[in-house]
Amino acid sequence: MVTKAIDTNKSPADLGFSMPAEWEPHEATWLGWPHNSADWPDKLDTIRWVYGEMARRIGAGERVRMLVNNSASEQMARRYLSRAGCDLRKIRFIKHPTNRGWMRDSGPIFVRKPELNKQRLETAIVHFHFNAWAKYDDWKKDRRVPEMAAKLLGKRLFNARAQGRDFVIEGGGIEVNGRGTVLTTEECYLDPKVQVRNPGLARKEYEETFKKYLGVNNVLWLVAGPVGDDTHGHIDDICRFVDRKTLVLIKEDRPKDANYRPLAENWDRVAEFRLEDGSKPEVVALPMPAPVYFDGYRLPASYANFYICNVAVIVPTFNDPNDRVALGILGELFRDRPVIGIHAVDLVLGFGTLHCLTQQQPA
Questions:
Q1: The total number of structural domains that make up the chain
Q2: Is residue 212 assigned to a domain?
Q3: Which of 86, 188, 239, 356 is catalytic?
């Protein structure tokens, strides 16, 4: 199939598109079969089994679109997923080479609009020009994923631009409630020296571009994220919507912990937040696990990196007493689907967990 032609002079917002919330119905979830051993040193085989558990849980309620590098990679994935109990009829393997496979950031970000008769919904893809978090050199294969997805699915493809240049953000750097509000962080996108995605772009230009390409009208900025975050402040390790008016925000209660002060600043900031309708959001504290280290490096372990799929909420767990607390809090907030923990001590060695590896395709 070919990508649908679009009027390049109009943005998604101009045409009535907006990014839906993650809890709204999915047609599919996109995953990329793990192959880059540098992301998980000495643990790549373990990670494949974690993918089996993820795909099994997600595939119980929606399709899984799994990117694989080649036929050999597909055959390997089939063996692991079959032995993990996945229904392979729910998984479509797509041969498309990737540098890594963090689908939240390099995968297709979908926007949606109702058609005139209100009986059907049209979805499209926004190309946000992934550049490996402005940190690594190997991103050219990953950057082509949105274009490939648009061609595969026959979707409109919007090229995000700002100030005459490609606009670079990642899916893990934004969080929407599907009603007009987007969350992000100053650390990730406004730091003028560290991992600069869009040199010269200020807060105003970011907000204008978010509104054009995500169809939002309200942009809220938190301060910073936990220590060890390779992305330099992605929101999906910090603060998430669980419904259109309720946020969970990570909180560190140990004053001597390195995360205590930066996360406390977020709590000061969130008290000033107003949603798109002018109301204050309800904010629920989500605890932090004890620090997780590998080879002397602190890793960004966070319960906020959960993923909402059609029939479950899958939550990273870390062999920590707060696992049970976090699962209980989220279980009270998500009454329409079970909340399920997935062991993520090995996953987080790649500086991300469940949300970072998934990307939803709305129905």
A1: 1
A2: yes
A3: 356
